[in-house]
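In the previous lecture we treated proteins in isolation. Real proteins rarely work alone, and many bind small molecules. This record shows how such a complex is specified: first the sequence, then the SMILES for pyridoxal-5'-phosphate.
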Amino acid sequence: MRLAKRIGLIKPSATLAVTAEVARLRAQGTQVIDFGAGEPDFDTPQRIKDAAVRALAAGATKYTPVAGTKQIREAVVAKLKRLNGLDYAPEETVATCGGKHALFGAFQALFEEGDEVVLPAPFWVSYADMLVLAGAKPVIVHGSPEAGFKITPEQLRRAITPRTRGVVLNSPSNPTGAAYDAPSLAALGKVLVESPDVFVIVDDVYEVLYFEGATPPHLLATYPELRPRTLIVNSVSKTYAMTGWRLGYAAGPVEVIKAITTLQGQSTSNPAAVSQAAAAEALAGPQDEIAPMVEEFRWRRDYVVDRFGRIPGVKCVRPEGAFYAFPDVSGLFGRAWRGAPLGNANRVCEFLLAEARVALVAGDDFAAPNHIRISYATSRDNLRNGFDAIEKAVGALG
Ligand SMILES: Cc1ncc(COP(=O)(O)O)c(C=O)c1O
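The predicted 3D structure, ligand included, written as tokens:
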């Protein structure tokens, strides 16, 4: 079979691959604790499901405008005002099939062959592949564990060349959970203000999952002058436990929004009508379910950091947000398992899946080969049982 060259440039998502492996093992009757999946274990709040049912009864079963209904675009505008203090018009927004498709459309609309796009690492697996598909070259800037996986303004400045067309900022981050506080974000913003040819993509999908006090002000609230060359990407997936509804959105300059909409019109058309109605309720309705969810994630964050801290050979930076931790497991490399030394993070994950029946994702695809990612979007019982099993398996290593 002859496939197009572009398909050879990308690989299956490492995180989705782990989810598929967990499903395969479970189908065989093997019990596995899943620390791989990047989705909240909570269910979509009832008020949102009710809104979807009402919308279906009212006929939300047809195509909608490609960029989304008036209702969802107005809900996005209201959310940006309520949470971020930012003023957008509905025409400056587009509803998409998940935040992922907003990013895909943005990269296609903005970048091309020869463009460099700065990607702070460790980064979410899909950024690099989606940039490559757009023809752009990801320029990877590593945030060190000592710096809490955050890049410094000096690193950002050094990475920007005359070919740099964009930068992607994701705070709190997948996979590390690292989040910039107000001064460190402002310091990056200052570099961006001084780099007028760089388009800024701000991926806010984890914005409410911040554990260190009040959410830091939005980059655009601090530097409104960046607004004409910034695209905000967000989605209801993580904030409202709505991963399966596939509803994301972007807000930014009208030309970029129109370009993303044209691309969407020639690929997916509008996102599902019923999901738009549900997401409008999510964004514009009462927000009471968020605070208890954040509290629960904070408890789990503390638990996970504490448990990793007690495993010899594992070092874990304390994340400030999201629902991930990203420990360094290189202290286990060289320990013997099944007659051979554990050589890399992939093998550590294989070992933990085989011996502890715990699924984790290796850091290689996040540009961090000494690390593994744990998603703690799972119950306290699963965390306790999973860590007990990990401790036992590591203790039994040669
Ligand atoms: C950093 C980041 N951005 C965007 C997304 C996209 O989420 P969705 O397409 O479900 O909105 C994800 C999902 O894992 C993510 O981790």
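Summary for your notes: The radius of gyration is 21 Å. The pocket of pyridoxal-5'-phosphate is lined by residues 38, 98-100, 124, 170, 174, 203, 205, 235, 237, 243, 248 (CB under 6 Å).
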